[in-house]
Each structure stands twice: as C-alpha cells, then as structure tokens.
Design goal:
Elements (H helix, E strand, L loop, with lengths): L1 E2 L5 E7 L2 E7 L6 E6 L9 H6 L5 E3 L4 E5 L4 E8 L5 E10 L1 H4 L5 E6 L5 E5 L3 E5 L6 E5 L9 E2 L4 E4 L3 E7 L5 E8 L20 E3 L3 E5 L7 E6 L5 E6 L13 E2 L3 E5 L20 E7 L2 E8 L6 E2 L1 E3 L4 E7 L8 E8 L5 E9 L8 E2 L1 E2 L5 E5 L2 E5 L2 H5 L1
Parallel strand pairs: 25-30
Antiparallel strand pairs: 1-2, 2-3, 3-4, 5-6, 6-7, 7-8, 9-10, 10-11, 11-12, 13-14, 14-15, 15-16, 17-18, 18-19, 19-20, 21-22, 22-23, 23-24, 26-27, 27-28, 28-29, 31-32, 32-33
C-alpha cells in the first residue's frame, strides 16, 4: 500500500483469481477504481509462486503504479485521469519474457536516481529499462532471488540465496557487479522461510552501510556491510538458538534495523485458535564498527512488514497473542523504537480471515494505520481524531 500525492490509497490485494490493483478513499475505505492484474501462472513451485506474486509496486513521480506482473511484464499504470478523477489505465508496458525466458518470473521492479527501472527475476537475472532512450539490459547472477532489493544514489543492492551484491551502471549503460559478498546461508530452509538463505532484502542505514539478515545456525545474525566495498563491518546474533529465521524485510531505523522473527510460521495453521509461532522482534544498531542488540521483544508479529514513524517514535506491526481459550485475535501493535517496550495494542479482528498475508503497515498523514489481511483492509486511528 502507498499513498498518492492526492492522498488516495493505492493497494494490491488478492482474491482466488489473482491480484487486483485498487485506488481507495482513505476515509471511507471504498474502492474508487479497480483493475485486475495478470493471474499467477500455474506452478507446483511454492517458492516461485510466493516470490513472483505480483504484489509489489511503487508509485513514480507521476503517481503511476509501476509493478512487475506475474506474466513477465513491467507495467506503469496511471491512478487518475486527466481531470484527477480515480482511474486505472495502463500507460506503458515493457514485455521482458524474451529476456528472462518463459520458465522465469519477475520478483520486483524499482526506479533508480536516474529514472531507469531496475528489475530482478526468480532465477537470478537482473536488468534495467532505460525509459528515456529505450532498450533493456540484463545480467545473469545465476543465483536465486526471492527478496526485494534496495537502491541508493550510487547503485542497486540485491540479496540472492548465496550473496549480497552491489550493482552499478558501466560506461556502456549496462549493469555490472561492483562487488559480491557471501554470507552464512545456513544448511536448510528454516521453519518460517520459503527458501534457504537470507529472508530479508537489503536495508540501507546510516554511515554508508547496508544490512541483511543471514541464515546462520544456531542463531540468525544481522550483518552490516560497507556500501562502497561490500566489506562486513560487524554482525550480531538475534533471538534464541534454534528458533530464529526471517522472511520479512528489515526496517531501517537510522543507525540500525528492526528484524522480525518468523520462525514457526509454516502456514495459516500456525496461528489458528490460540496458537502463535515463536515470534519476536529485535533492534540491532551499529556504532564505531561494532554491532549490538539494543532490545528484543517477544511479540509474535507474523507475515507483516513493520513500519517506523519518526513523528511518534514507534514501530508498528500486526501481532497475535497466545490464548488458552483458543481465541484467534489480531492486534495492531506499536513498540517504542528506543527500548522496544509496547506502547499500545488495538484488536483489529478475530479469526482466520483477519490473518495478515504478505502485508505491511502503511501510515497516513493523519496518523492512521492501514494493514491488509485475508479478507480486506483495516484502518486504525486515534480515538480523538476519529471524533473530529
């Protein structure tokens, strides 16, 4: 979910037929425009289906939703017509099937500082589109990619199932590897993961560093690397031994990151009735070449990418509490980003239909929080604001 410059909410949701792109009124939550996107191809590869779900997009400077579709295309879709009314019309399409092959699929697309659109594929191909001069370039890393990537002014950072990469544009306008740094990918697919290796995309933090979570045994580690050279600066183990894994992007908090423990999240059954997975969130900071775990909270945040608000100093996520009575209740939960203590928790619903799925929390300008679950979207806002 993202907010357009006119304040409308843009979101991708899924039903049984596949992904749907919506423009929503942030107050009434009523859909103002809806467009069905290409359905996922039929496959027995659950990892591929998860990585190439067609759920990731960004809004460009023209409020177009730019996304990698499940059928190997990148589309730029306008979210308003010439009069500013809600509308979803494909403005541009780039077909990349010939570049990636019919046996591959697109994971994510994102623009760099020069306006080029970079993309990554499940089988390890990385490429970019020059939206001005035209043409597309591709580089095959020959390693699996299931995670989003990050972009700064100087390059693109990609996590594969074996290494962390920095990619740049060479003198010929093609993508090339600036550096490659391996990490501890572990020995197996841990409980809560979809593939062996890092379950987090790279997160950009202060002091020209980039952070990832590895897949080490017995404890997962958060590692910080120099963006210019790829050299590992420091790393720190998080959560308990034998019960640590993540499939959630790290959240940058300036000098460090917040990491979510997804260990034990196998399916919806992991959170049925009063059950919860292992859970936990932690903050890891870097300072003077050393890493330290600032705090750890046992909150069971599942299938939701947290978000930090510097206005409130809180990190927001969706969480479930264990219940001896078998109550399957979900809560929008806020933790103090400084010490990890719970600031508040608001129940958003009960039952399996309120389970988050490949979701994240979005914050509106008025402080309202929006999060997706299996039956739709929910909004939580301050009671005093709601009265006005």
């Amino acid at each position: 979910m993202q907010f357009a410059s006119n304040g409308r909410l843009v979101a991708i949701c899924h039903d049984r037929r596949g992904p749907l792109l919506h423009v929503l009124d942030p107050e009434s939550m009523r859909p103002l425009a809806t467009k069905r996107l290409p359905a996922a191809s039929q496959t027995d590869d659950a990892v591929r289906a998860d990585a190439c779900s067609g759920a990731r997009f960004y809004l460009d400077n023209g409020d177009r939703a730019v996304l990698a579709t499940t059928d190997g295309r990148i589309q730029a879709i306008g979210t308003a017509d010439a009069d500013g009314e809600p509308d979803l019309t494909v403005d541009q399409t780039w077909n990349l099937v010939k570049l990636i092959g019919e046996d591959d699929c697109l994971v994510r697309a994102m623009a760099d500082w020069s306006g080029r659109i970079w993309w990554v594929s499940y089988q390890g191909r990385v490429g970019m589109l020059d939206t001005v001069a035209g043409g597309a370039k591709v580089l095959d890393l020959e390693e699996q990619i299931t995670q989003p990537f990050s972009v700064d002014e100087s390059g693109v950072f990609v996590t594969t199932d074996r290494a962390l990469y920095r990619l740049v544009v060479d003198d010929r306008g093609a993508a090339k590897v600036s550096w490659r740094t391996t990490y501890d990918r572990g020995v197996e697919v841990k409980s809560g993961q979809i593939a062996q290796g890092s379950g987090s995309g790279p997160a950009l933090v202060d002091d020209n560093l980039v952070a990832i979570a590895d897949n080490a045994e017995p404890r997962m580690q958060v590692a910080f690397h120099d963006r210019s050279t790829g050299a590992e600066v420091c790393k720190s183990a998080v959560f308990d031994g034998g019960e640590s894994a993540t499939e959630t992007s790290l959240v940058s908090v300036g000098s460090g990151v917040v990491v979510t423990n997804d260990h034990g999240r196998r399916s919806v059954a992991s959170t049925l009735l009063g059950f919860t997975p292992t859970g936990g969130m932690a903050r890891v900071d870097h300072a003077d070449g050393a890493c330290r775990v600032v705090w750890t909270n046992p909150v069971a945040a599942v299938s939701t990418r947290p978000v930090v608000s510097w206005a409130t100093g809180l990190v927001y996520t969706m969480a479930k509490r264990p219940s001896a009575w078998g109550v399957s209740a979900w809560y929008l939960t806020a933790l103090d980003v400084r010490d990890g203590k719970r600031a508040f928790a608001v129940r958003t619903g009960t039952g399996v239909l309120h389970t988050p799925r490949l979701s994240f929390v979005a914050l509106g300008k008025d402080g309202a929080a929006y999060v997706g679950h299996r039956s739709g979207l929910v909004r939580v806002r301050d009671a005093e604001r709601a009265k006005k």
